[in-house]
Amino acid sequence: MGNDDFYKETTGQSEAKIRIVSGYVSAWARAVMPSARRGIGKIAYVDLYAGQGCYDDGTKSIPILVLERTVCDSSMRDMLVSVFNDKDKNAIACLRQSIMAIPGIDTLRYAPRYETQEVGQQITQLIDQIRPIPTFLFLDPWGYKGLSLDLVSKAISGWACECVFFFNYNRVNPGLQHKGVAAHMDAIFGQDRANALRPILKVMCPQDRERAIMKELTDALRLVHGRFVLFFKFTNDDGTRTSHYLIFVTKNFTGYHIMKETMAKESSTCPQGVPSFEYSPLLDRQGVLSLDTDHPLDDLMTELLTTFVGQCLTTRQIYEAHSVGRPYLLSNYKTALRNLEARGCITTDPPAGIRPSKNGQSTFKDNVLVSFSPRIV
Known about the structure:
Layout: H1 3-6, H2 12-38, E1 43-47, H3 62-71, H4 74-79, E2 80-85, H5 89-100, E3 113-115, H6 123-130, E4 135-139, H7 149-156, E5 162-167, H8 169-175, H9 182-189, H10 191-201, H11 206-223, E6 228-235, E7 242-250, H12 253-264, E8 278-279, H13 281-286, H14 296-307, E9 312-314, H15 315-322, H16 330-342, E10 346-349, E11 357-358, E12 361-362, E13 369-372
Parallel strand pairs: 1-2, 1-4, 2-3, 4-5, 6-8
Antiparallel strand pairs: 5-7, 6-7, 9-13, 10-13, 11-12
């Protein structure tokens, strides 16, 4: 799909992306504003590929949804600084017109700022101008030009600063073997890492290639202080191959937890209640809720017994120690622990008989203390 066609109508993939990003911005703002109010008194949303504001079918894009929610929230209305950039001047003009049509937009304390810069090294100056405001930055390029480790590193530097970006796997995968775009690939992965990837990818099957590329990208992001990295995968229309990813990067577990809950809602499948973190148009059309061959909750119970043997931790401590890099939500851990408790594999304080019940089951709060039996030698 070319740039001119992108805004003609929304797809299931674009609608899921819109819900994830716009939904998370609101959740991030609620989490950050109490502390920000005691400090600089501002938070910021920056969109470096902001687009024209609305699709031709009338669907609102992320900038419009973010500002509509801001207008309806008295705290956000008083604190949010918004910056929208797109090198396409016509797109920015359309976006400005759409934003000005939002009811109550004139009640914002800080009027939206519009830029028409090409995303590259110079865009970091724009980010520098916003600091030290806690900032959520969204990168949604058409392909991969402009995306770089340096830009992500700059985006997440500072307290409560986070970034989510569009990763066009469908183009990056062949791009790593194309000398003409080597500089762009080096910018995304780092030159040494990209050079190490190129020869080994040639002999890999498609599934192994994807795993290798995403692992190296994760490792690269962690090197620029992206301690927590979360992927949401999108497949092509027939579900046969990966199209792109939405990738979230943060230094804070709370942000990781909130985004995980946000992304989970858009998963096309949830076997045993565990989200796939994947949107497949084919599965979404078919209304598939789970795959009988997958038993991730059973796997989680086995992993917990092995990982925490002989230890005593709260539910929340178990979740934070084990969930990073895995698809499980806090609710999945509570279900797994409740099942293990019922089987006598763990003991809890307070025990099930004392804890309040809901829907016929004992509740499992974050502070329940869980004891795993020591390994018998």
